[in-house]
Amino acid sequence: MSANNVRFAEAARLGTAAIVLVAASLGFAACTSARNALGPHESPCFRTLAVAHAAVNDEGRFAGVRYLSTKDLMAALREMKTGPKNRFAVPAGLQHERSAICVVAYRGRFSTSDVALGWPPNRHGDPLAIVIVRVRDVRVLVTFVLKRPPLRFTRFLPSV
Questions:
Q1: Sign of the alpha-carbon torsion through 137, 138, 139, 141
Q2: What is the DSSP string of the chain?
Q3: Distances (CA, A) of 148 to 66, 68, 103, 124, 132
Q4: Which end of the chain has fewer CB atoms < 10 Å from its terminal CB, N or C?
Q5: Global pTM?
Q6: What CA dihedral angle connects 47, 51, 53 and 54, to 10 degrees?
Q7: pLDDT tens digit string along 13-37?
Q8: Tens digits of per-residue pLDDT, 60-83?
């Protein structure tokens, strides 16, 4: 084989390899879902953080956030026990809500009189405020003042 034929054969192999790599990368790109924003499932909750922080009167430290349906929140709250045989009482307005919500948690010392739409009545000095914000119109529905969280939260920010 002449030198020109060897060079041509090497160039052909390299060209074929490049075409295969490009085709494979396009194939992998076609398998991903199209979306207009990157981030976790809780990304709709970014819009609600300022409203939630205002609901606790800019007090406390951000503890986490979670995006879910009111049905899922109600199930978690019903499982909470407030006493030896008592279940957690949920406000009637929240029971009939059927929208997507963001649940934003803050750690600190809270009483129901110090937060927006505090529940349950007459709670003082509990370490957790859970602000329920409707995603559709970014409106606070209720702020629970609790001793422990009813569910797990996603943290966007590191502990400080």
A1: positive
A2: --HHHHHHHHHHHHHHHHHHHHHHHHHHHHTSPP-S--S-TTGGGGGGHHHHHHHTTT-SEEEEEEEEEHHHHHHHHHH-BSSSSPBPP--HHHHT--SEEEEEEEEEEE-GGGSTTEESTT--SEEEEEEEEETTTTEEEEEEEESS-SS--B-SS---
A3: 15, 19, 14, 14, 16
A4: C
A5: 0.69
A6: 160
A7: 766 766 766 666 665 555 544 443 3
A8: 999 999 998 888 888 888 777 655
Q: Per the structure block, which two tokens stand in for 27?
A: 């194939």
Q: Which residues, listed in sequence order, are joined to residue 110 by a DSSP beta bridge?
A: 126
* Rounded Cα–Cα distance for residues 152 and 75 (Å): 13
Asked whether 103 and 151 are in contact (CB, 8 A), the reply is: yes
Domain ranges of the chain: 1-34, 43-146
